[in-house]
Amino acid sequence: MSNQIVKFGLVGIGNIGQVHLKYLSEMANVEIVGVCDVDQEKADQHAKTFGTEAYYTASDLFAQSGLDVVIIAVPHYDHPVIAIEAFEHGIHVMCEKPIAVHVNDANRMIAAYEAAKLTYPNLQFAIMFQERTLPFYAKLKDMVASGMLGQLTRATWIHTKWFRSQTYYNSGGWRATWAGEGGGILTNQCPHTLDMYQWVFGMPSLISGHAHIGKYHDIEVEDEVTAYFEHENGMIGHLIVTTAELPGTNRLEIVGDNGKLILENGKLLHYQYPESMLTFTRETEQQFVTWEIEPVEIAVDTTVPNGHPVVTRRLIDRLIGKTVDLIAEGPEGIGALTLANGIMLSSFENRPIAVPIDGDAFQAHLDEKIKTSSFVKKVNQSSVSALDMSASYGTTK
Q1: Which ranges carry the GFO/IDH/MocA-like oxidoreductase domain (predicted)?
Q2: Fewest C-beta in 10 Å: which of 42, 66, 262, 344?
Q3: Which tens digits make up the pLDDT trace of 157-175?
Q4: How far apart are CA 165 and CA 109, in angstroms?
Q5: What is the pTM of this model?
Q6: Is the same domain home to 380 and 322?
Q7: Whole-number Cα distances in Å, 260 to 17, 53, 187, 253
Q8: How far apart, in whole angstroms, are the C-alpha atoms of residue 313 and residue 328?
C-alpha cells in the first residue's frame, strides 16, 4: 500500500454500515475513498459527513474511487454479487455476516476468491465475525482448545438475548422476508452464535432442527429455533434461540470428561472433576453419586480491545505488510451458514440432515418459499432512521 494508507470503500449505509464508517474515520492507516448506497440522498449525506465521494452502484465505486478494500454491508443476498465483482477487480473484501444466504452462493463466492488469487496472489477476503474477539468467548475458546476438559460430551447454548420488537421488523422492507433477507433469526441475529459454535467445537456430522415461523411476530420467517447436533467424536450439542424473549438468557454449558465450563452473566466458571467422569462411570461400584465441586471463576481481562475495529485492524495490518492472522478468513463463513441452512432444511423436511448438507435441496425450499409467498410486509418509514446498534451486539452477559 502506498505510504501505508489503505483506501476503504463501503457498500451499504444502513445501521451497521454507519458503525463501520464511524470507526474507520478514527483509524490510523485508513482513508475512506467512497461510500455507496442505492439511496442517493443517504450516500450524498454520508459522503459529506465523512469527507469522501458518493456512489450509487458498487460498479462505479470499484471503477472510480481507487479503493483497496470494500466493506460489504448490504442485505444478505447481495453479499456474493458484490464480493465476486470485487474479487474480479482485485479488490480486497471485508464482508458482513452472513457470508451469504445459502451455501451454494457461499461456495460460488469462495470459488471466485480462489480463482481471483491466481491473478492477484495477495488478495484478501475477511468476514466480520467480531464476536470471536469478545474476551469471554476468546478465553473459552482457548480453554477448550487446550484439551483441559478432555473428551467433550455436551455443549448446550441457550441464547435468547436477541429480542426484536415488531417495530424492528417493520423498519425495513427487506427484513424478515424470504425474498429480502432469506430467513429470520438464523440468518440475521445468529450467524455469530453459529460461528462461535463451530469455531469452538467444530462442525457436527448430523443436524436436527425445529424452526417456528412467525410464532411471536408478524413475519414470514423463523423467530424461534431449537437445534440438536451430533458430532463424530460423540459430543452432542443443543442450540435454543429466539427474538421474542425478555429478559433473554445467554448461557453456554460445555461438559467434558475432566470438567465443565459455564459461561453466563459475565462469569466463566470452571468445575474441575476429581477424576475422569467417563472412567468413573464405567468402573465405580456405587450406584448413585453426586460430586460436590466448588467452581473456580476464571479471570478474564475484559479491557482488551474487541469488536468490529479489531477485526478490521487485523486486515489493515496484513495489508500494510505485518504478519498477522485475520480474526476470520472469509471462507470460514461457510461453517456458520451450513449450520443455519442445515437447521432450516431439517425443519422443512422434518428429518435429521447429514453434514455437509445438500445445498441444492435447501435452495429449492428457499426458492419455493419466495415463489409462493403471499406475505404483505408492513414498513414504518419513521423507524428506518439510524439506530443505536450497541444493544444488538453479542454479549456474554
Answers
A1: 137-261
A2: 66
A3: 999 999 999 999 998 778 8
A4: 33
A5: 0.94
A6: no
A7: 39, 53, 30, 7
A8: 12
Q: How far is it, in rounded angstroms, from Cα 242 to Cα 184? A: 10
**Joined grid coordinates for residue 45:** 449525506
Interval 238-271: pLDDT, tens:
999 999 999 999 999 999 999 999 999 999 999 9
Look at the chain and report how many structural domains it folds into. 2
- Which of 115, 50, 57 lies closest to 89, judged by CA? 115
Q: Are residues 111 and 148 in the same domain?
A: no
CATH at residue 339:
3.30.360.10
Position 384 scores a pLDDT of 46
Q: Are 155 and 197 in contact (CB under 8 A)?
A: yes
Instruction: Please give the Cα distance from 184 to 187 (Å, whole number).
Output: 5
Q: Indicate whether 397 belongs to any domain.
A: no
The answer to whether 183 and 315 are in contact (CB under 8 A) is: no
Whether 23 and 123 share a structural domain: yes
Instruction: Band the pLDDT of 77: cuts 50, 70, 90.
Output: very high
Same domain, 239 and 373: yes
Average pLDDT, the chain: 95
